[in-house]
Amino acid sequence: MLALLALLQVDCLAESDPVGPEGECGPRDLTPECCLKQFPGEWERCTGFEAEQVVRSPSPRMKFAAAGMATIVAVTMQPRINAAEHRGVELAADLLAKVERAIERCTREADQQVNDHHFQGRSPSAEICQQLKAGDQVTWAVYLGLFKHEQAWPCLRKVLD
What we know:
Order of helices and strands: HHHHHHH
Helix content: 55-70%
Largest sheet: none
Mean pLDDT: 75
Radius of gyration: 38 Å
């Protein structure tokens, strides 16, 4: 964009004389106002527009510069489009994979701990799971499920903290 702006101001620089020591504009001041201060009444010279004709077709050099700048902008900006969104999706996928691994690890540990405590490391059979737990009004399946969830939470909090 800066290169395109510089090309637009080349005509004013090429035609203007250097500013004297007591001039109001600096040597790099490219504004039409500065040019008009140096060359009062020379509207076309400073702005590129004729006083009577407001619409002027661009020169072939300007068309080429504009096309080149548009190509540069299109090419350089293309990789950046959706880059943050793409990176966000990658981060979300990584985070999801980590959470899933943590859940799997913590539930396996809880399952092993509860089975070790109640069944000497073996998994209960389907018949045992359907039986009422002695002294309670719940089946072993319900009791073990709740107990395993309670055992998994501290692990999950620690891993996902």
